[in-house]
């Protein structure tokens, strides 16, 4: 990481010194020339840095030289950051025009004193760097004047394109493991099957495939997944098991309660548990866990993935499955997909020959093949491939036969800026879900993002960096949002090991005692519950630290909180004044210390998930370099500091879940760099807005806002609806989601004013999601129909709203929620174009006057996956005329019908929906029978029937529902009696259902 960090720190120093030297301010008196000299010195050193990095691997003296240089370069960077911060502070004071203070502050004596002090510091740093630069001559470094020259020597230009990666060559392995899982001819109730293989073979991927296989799903009543990694802590594993089974974190970590909860979930059931990435070789510890797992029904299986044969020996009750490498043909198929455009074999036979020789060196390991293939995608000439095979690849495979050096080779060929971005990821624990936006904000805070194209924002460039690393297989397991953008990802264990290797002591996940921290450590993450109770002394050695995580929210804490005390926070903050990023999320902090204002270099501050914070100290407004302030789920936060408008570099103000926030401070229009403002509160429910608080006019100049904007308390503008026009939302082209929250009122005045108010809140046509809540108007404004790019619409608690726009106006609409629209009479559609419907999720809840038939919904929305209808009293289930056949949605997974008094039968279109997995019918008194054709729903896994008193029997077709594993019958007295276990008349029809109960 030395070269990557040094080159970029050097670039920052050169840019800063040139920029600051050009400032025509009295503060420069006395050291303008020193700034220019410093820039020249660093430029001289920078020219040889990249060659020095290549030599350090085999020259200890060069490595030592780079270490000393790094320390000095960091010091120069901090010094110039001090200076630029001071300039910014003085500009802010001038802007505030506090005459007496400004006069004293900018007095000639004050300027001279500051100039003398700063000039002395810059000279000292420059002389230290001059001495280091002089020593470079004895190493005979090659001078590379620009980064572009070095990158051209290493690789061709990159791009951010990402292709889907398919798993290849594991069909036989999947079949073999499935047979082991489905085999019921076993002696033990719970059998343990280890999958053994070296890192990168795809053990986890294989386990994921069999875990999600449809046949496996039907065979097991319960499926659980836990990533174990290291250390092997039984209590933590049990807590994760409970979370996997219930989708909720346990409220208590008392072991007696945990094991009781676990046994309640798994005892008496045939379950499948995957324990991924097990390293524990202590048989006693394993037996402690095994006892808790032993209550499963016969045929239960525990599938373990591990690299250790010793782990397999102490755990297995069935023979281990040894996962081998890919075959030669499968290796070539995977390589082609990664190395060649569109995965097509090149016409040049020589390239094919070289490629086949290269994959032989990859030891048949998929991760290595992906890594090398991605690297060679950027080299399309025969000489490039030959040089790579005969020099780079040959040298490392002669030294070490493992796959790890091959992965290291992929790192070596990364552009310099991507190297430091990747190495920084070593701060996240293994198997952690990395939030991509947060990662990019952290990269930005440390200056890792090179911003040469001013037409792009920093965040867009950062996402290109991320996509480039993803393309090169440094990230995996991506999760996308509803717009297709990547939200989260993970790193493979081997890739994480690589990140830790290249980061060295620069980035450390610290032990509780902090003994692995050294003076040169710059980035530290703690995952210890004891840190804030007793700050370890070794931590204080790293006084130049730039990142401190305490801790990242994640599943490994399971609801525990850090009982930190005020003095501990003060100690931490006052000890690390060079911090650029500080994460105090989930730390249970009650009051943020005033000393936070001393962190003048801070760019990233995360205080999220601290419910006890009510107010922020005003000293936080001194952090004028701050770019990101994350406060999501600080549920008792009442106000933001008035002077938050001093944070003129703020780019991200994240306020999700700050439900108690009363008002926004006045003057946010000054924060023109804002990219993220998730919540804007005009006033709390039932309160009045003070005159000095912020109004929608403060949004006028914030045209760079992107992502989501949630405006709360629009009721406060009912008396002056024209004020809404001042926000000029129509100009905010990067906003994707707009949530508008009124407060429902019954008065005629409210109805009229809300219609004017909403008309004045017209957003840009690029909007993807629109949510309107508590609107008192009768009709929606015409601009709603013009938002043709909408993907999601939610209209809730708008009880006077009678009409919504025709859905054919929204060709990309995937989700529609209509909740508590008591006056809504109809949903308009273009019946002539039913096949183009893109709607996947439709929820119609408490729309009492809505007249529509289930058949009509099925006919017009053929792409539905999730349909929920609750308390729609005018909904009808008319039977079509004989001979009329409509094709229902072919993708429906869930159908829920509740409180529909007119439901006589299920719509006939449902018969052809063989994709349906879950059916819920509740509080439908007119329903007398289920159709015989229900047996055609071959994918149905869960059926719930509640409070349908006239439903007295089940059809014979129930016998054909072989996938049905969960059946609930509630408050249906006569039907319950016919379904009594073993004795009821209908019991033979449902005896095959493994999870059945009624009451």
- Over the alpha carbons, how many angstroms does the gyration radius reach? 32 Å
Low-confidence stretches: 99-105, 145-165, 552-564, 830-836
Largest sheet: 13 strands, parallel
Helix content: 25-40%
Estimate the strand proportion: 5-15%
- What is the averaged pLDDT score? 82
Please report the distance between the alpha carbons of the first and last residues: 63 Å
Q: Strand order, biggest sheet?
A: 17-18-19-20-21-22-23-24-25-26-27-28-29
The number of distinct helices, counting runs of at least 4 residues, comes to 27
Based on Cα principal axes, name the global outline: globular
> How many strands appear in the DSSP assignment?
29
Q: Which structural category do the helix and sheet elements fall into?
A: alpha/beta
Q: Any overview of this molecule?
A:
- The protein is α/β, with parallel strands linked by helices.
- Among the domains are: 2-154, no CATH class; 171-322, 3-Layer(aba) Sandwich (Rossmann fold), CATH 3.40.50.300; 328-412; 429-506, no CATH class; 822-915, no CATH class; 917-999, no CATH class.
- A 13-stranded parallel beta sheet has the order 17-18-19-20-21-22-23-24-25-26-27-28-29.
- Helix 24 (748-759) links the parallel strand 19 (735-741) and strand 20.
- Helix 1 packs antiparallel against helix 2 (32-55), helix 14 runs parallel beside helix 16 and helix 19 (416-424) packs across helix 22.
- It is globular and about 95 Å long.
- Residues 99-105, 145-165, 552-564 and 830-836 have low confidence and may be disordered.
Supply database-style keywords:
999 residues, alpha/beta, 13-stranded parallel beta sheet, 8-stranded parallel beta sheet, 27 helices, 13% strand
